[in-house]
C-alpha cells in the first residue's frame, strides 16, 4: 500500500509529499541550524503519518509530549533504570503503541544512557514483533557525536552503538530512523551515511554547507543557497521524496511545542525604588533549604581500564638509595625506536587507506616486536606522530624555526586533516613542488580527489595558506606566516610517492 505524506508545498506551489513505505526502507536525515524549523518539520511528519505507522520519538527537550493529547502517544518518562526502559521498549514493539521518550530534566550523560537502553530494547525485540516503526531522534548529535566530549567513554559507546544499530541494521527489524541535527559536522559519519533521504535547512558554517551540498550532489556555488533559506524551508532529495534537489516549504501543524522562540515584550513599568525592594527583599520561602538528592553512583570502571592500571602499577622501592633492578629508559633511544616503527607504517603501501584504529593496533604490535622500552603512545599522541611522520621531514628541516611554526599551526586542526596540512607545509618549507590532488587524497585516506581539493580550500578559508595558479596551470601554495611557498606543481599529476606508486600498481 502506497501512502503519501504531505510535507507542504514544493516548486511552483505543487504539493511536496513523502512516500511513507519508501521512507521506512531508506531512512531520513534532517539538518538545520537552531531556529531553522527542524522540530516543526518533524512534527508535521509525525502528525501526517500518525494514522498509518507506529511512532517512537526520542525527545531530549520534551517538545513532542503534546502529541499525546491529539494523537494518543504514550509519554515515557526516562527517569527510570536502564533495565526498566529496555523492558518497556520491548513491550512497545509487542503491542505496537506510539510513544514519546521524554528525556527532559536529565543531564547529557543520563540522556545518552537512557536513549541507548530504550533503542536497544526496541532493536532486540523478538522477531515476531518486528512491525514497522518510525523512530524519530531529535538533536541526534547528542546521541551520536562525531568526537568524544565531556561524557564518559562508556556512555558515548553505548549511545553511539544504539544509534548505529538503528541506522545501519534497523531496517530488517522494521525500525526506520529519522534523525535531526543542528550540525552535520558534529554527527558521527557512519550514522549520517546510512540515510538515503535528506532535508537540508538553513545553515551558515562553510564546513556544514559543503557537507550538505555534497550529500545533495551540489557544487560549492550552489551550497551558498543554504544561508538564504527562510525558517521552515528546506531542500529535499531522496527516493522517498524527489530524485532531484527540491525546495520545500513545510506546511502548518495541528499541535504545538511547549517551548517556543522568545518574543520581544515591553518591560514592566516599575519605579526604581520598588524594583530595588523586589530584588533585595528576602522572601522567607527562599530560606528553606531545598531537598538535596544524593548524586547517582559513578559508573563501574571498565575492565580494560583496571587492567591498564594494574600493568602500570609498580611497587615502591625499599629506600631511596636502593639501586633499581631495571636499567633506566633512555628517552632518546625510545624516541628513535618509535620513529623507526612509524616510518615502517608510513612505508606500507596500504597504510594510507586504513583506519586510524587499525594503524594504531599495528603500531602496538610493531612496538612489541621491536621491544620499544617504556609505555606505548596513547591514541591521541599516535595520531599526531603519524601525521608528522607522513610529512617526511628530514632532521635538518625538523629543527628549523619554519617547521616548528608549521607544527604549532597544525595543532589547531582536527586529527584527520593534520597530516594533509603538514605535507603541504613540508613542500613549502623545502621549496618542493606543490603536492598533487592524488597525493593529498592518499594522505587523507580517500580516493576522492575533490575532497582533497576541498581541504586546501578549507585551509585557505582559515587563513593558514594561499593557493594560486600560474600561467601554465601549475599550483603554488604560499604560507604567509612561514614566509615560504612551494614550487609549482601539477594538481592533476599521479601520486608520485613510493607508497602511492605501489598502491596504484
From TrEMBL:
InterPro entries: ATPase_Atu1862_pred, HerA-like, HerA_central, P-loop_NTPase. Residues 483-505 are annotated as: Disordered. Pfam families: DUF87. Gene3D superfamilies: P-loop containing nucleotide triphosphate hydrolases. It comes from the Bacteria. One of its GO terms (molecular function) is ATP binding. Residues 13-109 form the Helicase HerA central domain. This is ATP-binding protein. It comes from Neoaquamicrobium microcysteis. The lineage of its organism: Bacteria, Pseudomonadati, Pseudomonadota, Alphaproteobacteria, Hyphomicrobiales.
Amino acid at each position: 500500500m502506497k501512502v503519501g505524506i504531505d510535507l507542504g508545498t514544493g516548486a511552483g506551489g505543487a504539493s511536496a509529499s513523502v512516500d511513507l513505505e519508501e521512507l521506512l526502507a531508506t531512512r531520513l536525515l534532517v539538518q538545520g541550524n537552531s531556529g531553522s524549523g527542524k522540530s516543526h518539520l518533524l512534527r508535521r511528519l509525525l502528525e501526517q503519518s500518525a494514522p498509518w505507522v507506529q511512532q517512537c520519538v526520542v525527545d531530549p527537550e520534551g517538545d513532542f509530549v503534546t502529541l499525546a493529547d491529539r494523537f494518543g502517544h504514550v509519554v515515557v518518562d526516562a527517569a527510570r533504570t536502564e533495565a526498566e526502559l529496555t523492558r518497556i521498549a520491548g513491550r512497545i514493539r509487542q503491542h505496537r503503541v506510539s510513544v514519546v521518550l521524554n528525556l527532559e530534566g536529565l543531564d547529557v550523560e543520563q540522556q545518552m544512557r537512557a536513549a541507548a537502553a530504550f533503542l536497544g530494547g526496541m532493536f532486540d525485540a523478538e522477531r515476531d514483533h518486528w512491525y514497522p516503526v518510525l523512530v524519530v531522534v531529535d538533536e541526534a548529535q547528542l546521541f551520536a557525536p562525531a568526537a568524544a566530549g565531556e561524557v564518559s567513554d562508556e556512555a558515548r559507546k553505548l549511545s553511539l552503538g544504539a544509534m548505529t544499530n538503528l541506522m545501519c541494521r534497523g531496517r530488517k527489524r522494521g525500525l526506520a530512523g529519522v534523525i535531526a541535527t543542528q550540525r552535520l559536522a558534529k554527527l558521527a559519519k557512519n550514522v549520517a551515511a546510512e540515510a538515503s533521504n535528506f532535508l537540508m535547512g538553513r545553515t551558515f558554517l562553510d564546513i556544514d554547507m559543503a557537507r550538505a551540498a555534497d550529500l545533495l550532489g551540489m557544487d560549492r556555488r550552489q551550497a551558498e543557497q543554504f544561508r538564504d533559506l527562510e525558517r521552515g524551508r528546506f531542500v529535499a532529495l531522496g527516493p522517498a521524496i524527489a530524485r532531484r534537489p527540491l525546495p520545500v516549504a513545510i506546511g502548518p501543524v495541528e499541535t504545538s511545542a511547549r517551548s517556543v522562540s522568545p518574543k520581544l515584550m515591553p518591560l514592566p513599568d516599575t519605579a526604581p525604588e520598588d524594583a530595588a525592594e523586589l530584588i533585595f527583599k528576602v522572601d522567607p520561602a527562599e530560606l528553606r533549604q531545598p531537598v538535596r538528592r544524593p548524586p547517582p553512583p559513578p559508573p563501574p570502571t571498565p575492565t580494560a581500564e583496571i587492567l591498564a592500571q594494574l600493568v602500570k602499577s609498580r611497587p615502591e622501592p625499599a629506600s631511596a638509595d636502593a639501586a633499581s633492578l631495571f636499567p633506566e629508559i633512555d628517552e632518546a633511544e625510545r624516541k628513535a625506536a618509535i620513529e623507526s616503527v612509524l616510518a615502517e607504517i608510513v612505508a606500507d603501501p596500504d597504510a594510507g587507506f586504513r583506519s586510524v584504529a587499525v594503524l594504531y593496533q599495528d603500531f602496538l604490535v610493531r612496538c612489541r616486536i621491536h621491544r620499544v622500552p617504556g609505555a606505548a603512545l596513547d591514541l591521541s599522541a599516535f595520531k599526531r606522530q603519524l601525521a608528522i611522520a607522513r610529512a617526511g621531514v628530514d632532521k635538518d628541516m625538523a629543527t628549523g624555526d619554519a617547521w616548528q611554526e608549521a607544527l604549532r599551526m597544525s595543532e589547531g586542526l582536527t586529527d584527520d586533516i593534520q597530516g594533509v596540512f603538514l605535507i603541504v607545509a613540508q613542500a613549502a618549507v623545502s621549496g618542493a613542488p606543490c603536492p598533487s590532488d592524488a597525493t593529498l587524497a592518499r594522505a587523507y585516506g580517500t580516493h576522492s580527489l575533490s575532497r582533497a581539493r576541498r581541504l586546501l580550500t578549507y585551509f585557505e578559508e582559515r587563513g593558514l595558506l594561499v593557493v594560486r595558479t600560474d600561467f601554465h596551470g601549475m599550483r603554488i601554495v604560499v604560507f604567509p606566516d612561514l614566509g615560504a611557498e612551494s614550487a609549482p606543481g601539477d594538481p592533476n599529476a599521479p601520486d608520485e610517492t613510493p607508497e602511492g606508486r605501489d598502491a596504484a600498481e
